Amino acid sequence: MLLQALREEVLEANLELVRRGLVLYTFGNVSGIDRGQGLVAIKPSGVAYEELTAEKMVVTDLAGKIVDGTLRPSSDLDTHLELYKHFANIGGVAHTHSEYATAWAQAEKEIPCFGTTHADYFHGPVPVTAWLSEAAIAGEYERETGVAIWRRFAELDPDAIPAALVAGHGPFSWGASATEAAHNAAILEYVARMASHTLAVNGKTGPLPQALHDKHFLRKHGGHAYYGQAKAG
Q1: Is 50 a residue whose pLDDT tops 90?
Q2: Is 120 a catalytic residue?
């Protein structure tokens, strides 16, 4: 089986969306990329999660051509491919319609950083894209969705803010691997829910002070990060 290890990881990442309550029925998808071969493994379109196997993951090239698999790839494939082409450091992409993150996307509102939980993962608000034009929707809709995301990051760092909200649609997240992309999707939903609750308690809540925001993000992700255990070697 071509890219067996990657397909198995992508399968588990898709199932993690289910375990974390981020998807209903066949909603959502995760992909992973082998940068060396320029190939992507992604969930097949419309297949129930309980029916998924590693063999059913679809492998395509970066032009979207199927190179291994008998099923159609996720209809969001072209969005994933746009992100792989423009975000050089990512190894996985996840898309869900999780309740709170999608509500923020539908409201066309970025998710502010109100606390240190958000700051641990996102070095800034989680941005929302511009609306797609009618021509973009009528044309290559899924590719244009990816274009809207990377254009929104023209002055942002996708490695420091590994997620975006597509206006009127829902969240996409990414990471160094498919596993990490699914993990970030779960964290995104968590901080979206907390942000909603925060504003319900106090609608005038301001953002976390920048010094505290920086401290929490950099102690986990910065050049001198000290969160967690040192890696062997």
Answers
A1: yes
A2: yes
